[in-house]
């Protein structure tokens, strides 16, 4: 599908995401101006108070945006999945340039001008509003310009925590390894940044020319705030009592999220989708905080990664353990969907054939010459890389390369990596000519997919259990691989794939 | 003040009465005033001075002698370390700084016009602070700009950077006189101008001042200016007021510190014919 075709097919969605993006940037920049200008004034008037503020703003700026999001997520009031956390993060980023340029603008004013204002009998407030701020305005606008352009870029990260925006296409594209989808989000975001920069550059020039600049500048700012207010309905919440469905940020999860959402809708439950959230930890926090009512988790991940409990090697025991662990936090693990998405150790099929590799044990002979690479979670997790090398006695010649999950399959295929751990149900295994090595020592625990639902939600809406139990045991590993392939290889829409699958199984059930 | 706001002040009955007591009750008085910044050395030492209403007093002295400090003590930008500065019979410590400053016009050397405001807005700034209606402000600006020889039709909407140095100085003067203040302070008002414009503007200032009867205190290091403008000339040297008298008396003073300044006066170059 070409880029233009993609945009035409998703026109409504593109509009909504662009509007969300604009709201994120406008609101956060607006708040940053409202806070930053007074802070800049403070920094100049009361250096002892203002200097530490400037340092704090500096520090906030240096925290990587994803880290800041993860940091804020569990906090009360500011945190949570959705636009709020994103707005707080973006505001913190926008603050520094604005505080700094406000202070610089005020400091650069000719002392004679200030003195004549004082000598004329201006009160400190009059001096500020009539003389100092108008004269510092071009500098302040330059700061706003920097903040806005940075904000447009940073706002793409907001999609990782379900705050929408054009980043959704970028993350979706990354998880599907689809350049078209990535560009579908990246290009409008870049265009947005250029337009915002141009607009503010114009405003800066108008202000510098001085002629009625202040009035004009204020009216433009007012117009922007008004625009944000008008656009804010793009975040309209679902109907009261709706159920929020979440998912992690890879294809299978998005399909599962769609399956759950559509099953709920079929039972007449209003649904809000927050698909493509960051990884396991973000989904878990969102679920416990009540920002998400349901998402599909894997039993192995739940026990080892979420609760840091030892692995149980038996599917049924693992499910019971999962239920036991979630019950005290107000979450119910429902019946498994039917497939086990365990880790698969992947190599190029050509290598496997040439070297006769069939099991993970066979890697011992080549490990010292090979470059391993894994997703961030796999490198961190108890049941990840460290355990794998210990269990199989693998000694790789190089430290493993950390890489986004969405990139690892391609990285093995193109030779950047030689071995990795992927999803056993991934469509990319076949599509990219990879081979899975058998886990003969049963290192990897069972990863049965189970819907996790907030117990309160189950009690509130009995249809939720009915809808989800309807999915129990209906999705085989082959079904899942086929659906993954439909999205990842044939570039079909996850929602369409889920719909088609539900229609076929419903037909099957009707015939039972 | 409000009643005379839109017209130039003439010789009203009250002004004449004011003037008649002016010699006894000074509008500005310095009583053994010393001033020093924090713990530093004193920039002004034991100055006693009485300025009657309607007088033009020129303070001369070399740079850093403490002239500008005297102006800042009058409009309460500074308070004396020792002694009392009084304006209209009241200690400046008792004045509210804002109220006092709105009664005192101030013209700086580099004018200090607000670069982001038009000529009209600059001149109308103190009336605006005083809450005048826009109509009244516009009328007053017209009168003032005419007075300083810069017709409003041509100049009102211009910005300071679109004006010459002399024009800016005129606007600065108009701005300082906007609410018809009883006192006008001028810090090196014509210092940055070319000699021809300077002489022109001095003459014009004298004309305007005579019509207004404002009390004016001018600070300069230019002796020629002092003689051209002053009813009295005060000589400041090293923080002290060493002489304060009529120009004729200053010109013939025997005090070496005064002579040193008088001798800076530029005379026509020797041509061989001079005696």
Could you explain the architecture of this structure?
The complex is a heterodimer of chains A (512) and B (275). Chain A is mainly alpha-helical. Helices cover 61% and strands 8% of the residues of chain A. Chain A has 23 helices and ten strands. In chain A, the strands form four sheets. In chain A, strands 3-10-4 form a three-stranded antiparallel sheet. In chain A, α2 runs antiparallel to α3, α8 runs antiparallel to α9 and α9 runs antiparallel to α10. The two termini of chain A are 39 Å apart. The mean pLDDT of chain A is 85. In chain B, α6 packs across α8. The N terminus of chain B is likely disordered. Chain B is 37% helix and 21% strand. Chain B has a domain of 59 residues. Chain B is α/β, with parallel strands linked by helices and 275 residues long. At the A-B interface, α6 and α7 of A face α3 and α5 of B.
């Amino acid at each position: 599908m070409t880029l233009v075709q993609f945009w035409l097919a998703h026109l409504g969605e593109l509009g909504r995401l662009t509007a969300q993006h604009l709201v994120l940037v406008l609101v956060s920049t607006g708040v940053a101006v409202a806070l930053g200008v007074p802070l800049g004034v403070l920094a100049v008037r009361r250096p002892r108070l203002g200097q530490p503020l400037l340092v704090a703003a500096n520090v906030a700026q240096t925290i990587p945006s994803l880290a800041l999001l993860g940091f804020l997520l569990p906090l009360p009031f500011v945190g949570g999945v959705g636009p709020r956390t994103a707005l707080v993060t973006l505001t913190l980023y926008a603050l520094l340039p604005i505080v700094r340029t406000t202070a610089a603008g005020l400091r650069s004013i000719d002392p004679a001008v200030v003195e004549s204002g004082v000598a004329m009998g201006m009160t400190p407030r009059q001096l500020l509003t009539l003389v100092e701020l108008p004269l510092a305005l071009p500098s302040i606008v330059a700061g706003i310009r920097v903040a806005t352009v940075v904000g447009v870029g940073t706002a793409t990260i907001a999609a990782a925590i379900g705050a929408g925006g054009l980043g959704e296409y970028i993350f979706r594209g990354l998880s599907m390894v689809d350049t078209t989808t990535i560009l579908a989000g990246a290009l409008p975001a870049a265009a947005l940044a250029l337009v915002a920069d141009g607009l503010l550059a114009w405003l800066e020039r108008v202000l510098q020319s001085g002629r009625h600049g202040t009035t004009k500048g204020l009216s433009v700012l007012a117009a922007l705030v008004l625009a944000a207010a008008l656009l804010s309905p793009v975040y309209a919440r679902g109907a009261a009592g709706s159920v929020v469905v979440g998912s992690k940020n890879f294809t299978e999860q998005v399909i599962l999220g769609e399956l759950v959402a559509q099953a709920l809708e079929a039972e007449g439950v209003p649904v809000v989708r927050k698909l493509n959230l960051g990884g396991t930890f973000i989904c878990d926090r969102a679920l416990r905080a009540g920002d998400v009512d349901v998402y599909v988790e894997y039993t192995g991940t739940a026990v080892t990664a979420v609760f840091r409990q030892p692995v149980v090697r038996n599917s049924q025991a693992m499910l019971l353990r999962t239920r036991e662990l979630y019950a005290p936090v107000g979450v119910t693990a429902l019946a498994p969907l039917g497939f086990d998405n365990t880790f698969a150790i992947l190599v190029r099929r050509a290598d496997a054939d040439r070297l006769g590799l069939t099991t993970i044990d066979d890697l011992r002979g080549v490990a010292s010459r090979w470059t391993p690479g894994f997703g961030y979670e796999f490198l961190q997790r108890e049941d990840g890389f460290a355990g794998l090398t210990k269990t199989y006695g693998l000694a790789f010649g190089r430290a493993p390369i950390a890489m986004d999950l969405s990139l690892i399959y391609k990285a093995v295929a193109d030779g950047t990596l030689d071995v990795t751990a992927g999803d056993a149900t991934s469509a990319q295994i076949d599509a990219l000519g990879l081979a899975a090595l058998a886990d003969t020592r049963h290192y990897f625990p069972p990863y049965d997919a189970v819907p996790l639902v907030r117990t309160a939600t189950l009690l509130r809406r009995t249809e939720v259990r009915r809808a989800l139990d309807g999915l129990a045991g209906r999705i085989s590993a082959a079904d899942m691989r086929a659906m993954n392939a439909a999205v990842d290889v044939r570039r079909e829409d996850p929602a369409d794939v889920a719909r088609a699958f539900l229609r076929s199984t419903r037909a099957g059930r009707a015939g039972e | 003040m409000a009643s005379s706001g839109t017209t130039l002040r003439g010789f009203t009955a009250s002004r004449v009465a004011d003037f008649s007591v002016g010699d006894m009750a000074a509008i500005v008085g310095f009583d053994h005033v010393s001033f020093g910044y924090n713990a530093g050395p004193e920039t002004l030492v034991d100055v006693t001075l009485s300025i009657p209403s309607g007088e033009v007093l020129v303070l001369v002295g070399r740079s850093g002698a403490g002239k500008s400090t005297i102006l800042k003590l009058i409009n309460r930008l500074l308070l004396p370390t020792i002694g009392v500065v009084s304006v209209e019979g009241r200690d400046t410590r008792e004045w509210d700084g804002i109220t006092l400053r709105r009664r005192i016009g101030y013209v700086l050397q580099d004018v200090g016009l607000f670069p982001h405001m038009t000529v009209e807005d600059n001149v109308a700034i103190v009336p605006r602070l005083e809450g005048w209606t826009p109509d009244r402000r516009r009328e007053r600006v017209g009168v003032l700009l005419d007075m300083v020889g810069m017709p409003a039709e041509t100049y009102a909407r211009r910005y300071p950077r679109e004006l010459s140095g002399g024009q800016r100085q005129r606007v600065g003067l108009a701005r300082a006189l906007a609410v018809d203040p009883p006192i006008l302070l001028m810090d090196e008002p014509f210092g940055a101008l070319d000699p021809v414009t300077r002489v022109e503007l001095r003459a014009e200032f004298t004309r305007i001042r005579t019509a207004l009867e404002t009390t004016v205190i001018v600070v300069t290091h230019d002796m020629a200016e002092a003689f051209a403008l002053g009813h009295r000339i005060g000589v400041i040297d090293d923080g002290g007021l060493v002489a304060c008298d009529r120009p004729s008396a200053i010109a013939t003073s025997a005090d070496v510190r005064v002579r040193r300044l008088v001798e800076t006066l530029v005379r026509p170059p020797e041509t061989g014919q001079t005696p």
